[in-house]
Amino acid sequence: MSGRRGLLIVLSGPSGVGKGTVGQKLRERMPDLVYSVSVTSRPPRAGEVEGVNYFFRSREQFEEMIRQDAFLEWAEYVSNYYGTPKAFVFEKLAQGRDVLLEIEVQGARQVRRRYPDGVFIFLAPPTWEALVDRIQGRGTEDPAVISERLRQAEQEVREVDLYDYVVVNDDVDAAVERIRCIITAEHLRRARAFDEMRRRLTREVWR
Amino acid sequence: MSGRRGLLIVLSGPSGVGKGTVGQKLRERMPDLVYSVSVTSRPPRAGEVEGVNYFFRSREQFEEMIRQDAFLEWAEYVSNYYGTPKAFVFEKLAQGRDVLLEIEVQGARQVRRRYPDGVFIFLAPPTWEALVDRIQGRGTEDPAVISERLRQAEQEVREVDLYDYVVVNDDVDAAVERIRCIITAEHLRRARAFDEMRRRLTREVWR
């Protein structure tokens, strides 16, 4: 294991597909997976802990981080910034740890450009109707917001070409198991497992 | 599932690594996996059943099949022919079934040329010593035969570049589980899962 770089696992998909729920169960199932904590400029909500839920920074601090190219990806939603700090992720990968990013499609696109070796997993709804139900079921939003979200989700579904794998979230446990298999298989892919085997089996080691 | 082509899973690796044992447990664990029965020109041993262990053919019949390009791969060992019949494999793949080939490294090389879309898994020994033990432990062979097998295994280990995945056979159950994950993950890879998702989520289907 030592000396081997970890995998960057990017779990993304349309808003409302259930990334949070699947990501949380995946982390329970694979406790060694490092979860990347995002930076945000929005104020903490009750119960949210610095460094656990988010790193909370001012808009000015966030903008300074953007200038310093400190983000693997970032975006602004509803006047608040959200971003994935690069240093933490790269440090864990260099230590050989697998890192999980649960991010929006827009952010995944940025990560693909900056770190093409990542394992990009698109979480898809079982049907379009299921996604509509999820987006509407979130509750209090007015019809205009819901309609905008649906339009956005439709756009996001078209971005699937960017991804290495498609996992249908028809059942949370089944989706988690599929993602676990993807991570296992990616570790066994030739480019990654090859050096390890060479190391085990070269003549210098044999004799 | 319908309309989707199955996966050709090629399990290979140096002679003595345990392909047979791992392959058998994998088939028990994944009963839907179609096992490709080989054709051979060697006479049946006691208890061997036509169409289960092998398809038994005369040398002349085998050579006629070679001329008709009926094999995905074939080779001659100790004056007997062994080969994988193409028609059976392609028929099952077209039906959407996954097909498992347990074959020698030499045969895997031929399959890679003829069917590059296969999923090529190299079963590797945990250490070179473990492979030596296995080859020597097979028993009755004289030292010259053993020495020739070791030389061949050493050559075969170098062919790992041809494969998509490397699975170390340190424990049969663990190796089987890794291969199961590889097959699951390969079904979820974009190129394969993509059309399926498009079919589920295109507007024509939604509305």
TrEMBL record, chains A, B:
Gene Ontology molecular function, alphabetical: ATP binding; GMP kinase activity
Keyword line: ATP-binding, Cytoplasm, Kinase, Nucleotide-binding, Transferase
Superkingdom in the source lineage: Bacteria
Pfam family, one: Guanylate_kin
Record-linked CDD domains: GMPK (cd00071)
HAMAP family, A to Z: Guanylate_kinase
Family designation: Belongs to the guanylate kinase family.
Protein name as catalogued: Guanylate kinase
